[in-house]
From TrEMBL:
MF terms in GO: zinc ion binding
Alphabetical list of SUPFAM superfamilies matching this protein: DnaK suppressor protein DksA, alpha-hairpin domain, Glucocorticoid receptor-like (DNA-binding domain)
Protein name (record): Zinc finger DksA/TraR C4-type domain-containing protein
Gene3D superfamilies listed in its UniProt record: DksA, coiled-coil domain
Residues covered by the Zinc finger DksA/TraR C4-type domain: 132-166
Pfam families: zf-dskA_traR
Keywords: Metal-binding, Zinc, Zinc-finger
Residue intervals of every dksA C4-type zinc finger in the record: 137-161
Basic residues biased stretches: 9-24
Domain of life from the UniProt record: Bacteria
Region of interest (Disordered), residue spans: 1-24
Length: 173
């Protein structure tokens, strides 16, 4: 056997072992790591009645939170520390009382701040109701589940995107 004959045999053997696999039906190469094309879900718009119901829910929550913020402001901002402690005598009161009152005020301010953030989210959701984009995730543009919207009508994201944002540290809810 000469050099060229040996080389031809080796090349034929090499071709056989390294051929691409093909599917039987269509003779197209089979890719082991083929990525399936994601089906693009069409964004469904909510019906007018459904939007009306969510708008009513949002307005009710807005009213409750606004009332809560006003109540906190009335209780904490309009009273001095002496009034808040209930001390009516002219004597100074104990340092522990001052610390407790300060803690209570700080706690109330924290709640009011959190309520203001929710109020902002509710107003944004009401704008989306008017725009016709309410119920769609702001991240992936897919429809947010009705269960989630009922539990948290001012939400901006679907569960999947919310979890992803929380992992990244960009939580907004």
């Amino acid at each position: 056997m000469n050099y060229n004959e040996g080389r031809t045999k080796v090349m034929k053997k090499h071709k056989k072992t390294h051929q691409k696999k093909t599917s039987v039906r269509n003779k197209k190469p089979i890719l082991k790591n083929r990525v399936k094309k994601a089906k693009l879900e069409k964004v469904k718009k909510m019906g007018k009645q459904e939007l009306k119901g969510y708008k009513k829910l949002l307005l009710r929550q807005k009213e409750l939170i606004t009332g809560e913020i006003q109540h906190i402001a009335k209780d904490t901002l309009n009273k001095s520390q002496k009034d808040a402690s209930g001390d009516i005598s002219g004597y100074t009161y104990h340092m522990a009382d001052v610390a407790t009152d300060t803690y209570d005020r700080e706690f109330s301010f924290g709640i009011a701040s959190s309520d203001r953030e929710v109020l902002y989210d509710i107003n944004e959701a009401l704008k989306r109701v008017e725009d016709g984009t309410y119920g769609n995730c702001l991240e992936c543009d897919k429809q947010i589940s009705k269960k989630r919207l009922t539990a948290m009508p001012y939400t901006k994201f679907c569960i999947k995107c919310q979890k992803s944002l929380e992992v990244k540290g960009k939580s907004s809810e």
